[in-house]
Amino acid sequence: MAQAGGWRVGVAAVVFLAAVAAGGGSAGAAGLPGSSGSAGSVGSAGHVVPAVTLAPSGPRSGARPDVVGGRDALPGQFPWMVRLSMGCGGSVLTPWVVLTAAHCVPRTGPDAGIVATVGRTRLSAPGGQTIRSSYVLRSPRYAQAGTVDWALIELAQPTTAPRLGLIGQGDMSAQSAQLTIMGWGATEEGGAQSDTLRYATVPYVDDATCARAYPTQFRPATELCAGYPQGGVDTCQGDSGGPMTADVRGRIVQVGIVSYGVGCARPGYPGVYAEVEAFSAEISSHLGGQGQLVS
Question: What does pTM read for this prediction?
Answer without folding.
Answer: 0.81
